[in-house]
Specification:
Blueprint (H helix, E strand, L loop, with lengths): L8 E4 L12 E2 L38 H17 L18 E5 L28 H13 L4 E5 L9 H9 L8 E6 L6 H10 L3 E5 L5 H8 L4 H13 L4 E8 L7 H9 L6 E6 L16 H11 L4 E2 L10 E5 L2
Parallel strand pairs: 1-8, 3-4, 4-5, 5-6, 6-7, 7-8
Antiparallel strand pairs: 1-10, 2-3, 9-10
Helix pairs in contact: 2-3, 3-4
């Protein structure tokens, strides 16, 4: 959520990693207890046998009986659930209602960031085992029917999927049933003017851009790829389109981008309605993670306050379920 004032900053001590396994759905730690008014939204009715073509591919007569039974089982569950503003299976042991869903569309990425992926890449899951377009649409509809009002598409890099505009458009149709926000987390490399305009037209409301430095040479070193200007152009275009939320995710690594880069990002927000989120360096297979590379939260605050003495905590802005602490430069 954008912070008040000319400068916005969210310093994080442990956000969810930007990548998740493709084809899996995760409910992140940053959840919100949001009540939904039934008077302003149409109740969502789960698909019936006659309307499942949008969600379930037709099964030919030659398909084995177990698959037929599986399809019928899905329809039976849909009929039993019916329209429910909140679902018990989306409420945790602390009685918090989970309303935020993240869907990982792919493992593929067009960058090779030092902290995320080996230079030669990683073994990829076969495409046949990933969520198809219709499966993403169906899962999103099911979760919205149970109280989810915010969906974020992630990866890997979601923009490498050619059906991303179609997926966003299908999610947009769920807004009449309670969905309020549609976001993506992207590195912005392939999100050119034309593609971003299409996504916004199709219903995109929130954009998180992964960018760890404002120095083009440092960018090439950290990502092992070129394209720094393309990312900056993506951010500027998002602001020009008037997206309600534009955030930059910065993974901070000690000795690499924990001093000048941090200050540069804070200064970057001075005249732009952007939220910067500093994210903890997380361990991944093959990223040579070391505890010595972690940057403590207090170190970040001290670094910023040396350049901006008025840097202050924003009172009463942290949601009880937030994984970040909100700060600003007045």
């Amino acid at each position: 959520m954008p912070l008040a004032g000319p400068s916005r900053l969210a310093a994080s001590t442990g956000l969810v990693p930007r990548s998740t396994a493709a084809g899996r759905i995760s409910s992140p730690l940053q959840l919100r207890n949001l009540s939904r008014s039934s008077s302003s939204k149409k109740p969502y009715t789960l698909p019936t046998e006659a309307s499942t073509s949008r969600y379930l591919l037709p099964i030919a007569d030659s398909i084995a009986l177990p698959q037929r039974r599986a399809r019928q089982r899905i329809l039976d569950i849909d009929a039993q659930l019916g329209p429910q503003p909140h679902s018990h299976f989306l409420r945790d042991r602390h009685s918090r209602q989970h309303t935020y869903l993240r869907i990982s569309l792919t493992e593929k990425c067009n960058l090779r960031c030092l902290y995320c992926m080996p230079e030669d890449g990683v073994p990829l899951t076969p495409s046949a085992n990933l969520l198809s377009t219709s499966e993403v649409e169906r899962l999103a509809a099911l979760f919205v029917s149970q109280g989810v009002n915010k969906i974020r598409l992630t990866g890997g890099e979601p923009t490498v999927r050619s059906d991303l505009p179609q997926i966003v458009a299908s999610l947009n149709s769920l807004k009449q049933h309670g969905l309020e926000q549609i976001g993506i987390t992207t590195n912005g490399i392939a999100l050119g003017r034309r593609k971003l305009d299409t996504l916004v037209h199709n219903g995109l409301t929130h954009l998180n851009v992964s960018l760890d430095t404002l120095d083009p040479f440092q960018f090439e070193f950290m990502t092992r790829r070129r394209g720094h200007q393309a990312v900056l152009d993506c951010i500027e275009r998002a602001l020009a389109l008037g997206l309600p939320s534009v955030k930059i995710n910065v993974v901070v690594i000690k000795g690499l981008n924990d001093t000048n880069d941090v200050v540069d990002f804070v200064r970057f927000t001075k005249d732009k309605p952007i939220t910067i989120r500093f994210i903890e360096y997380m361990p991944f297979d093959g990223n040579k993670w070391q505890v010595q590379k972690l940057v403590p939260y207090r170190h970040l605050v001290k670094t910023i306050q040396q350049e901006f003495p008025t840097f202050e905590r924003v009172a009463n802005r942290d949601d009880p379920n937030d994984t970040s602490k909100h700060w600003r430069v007045p």
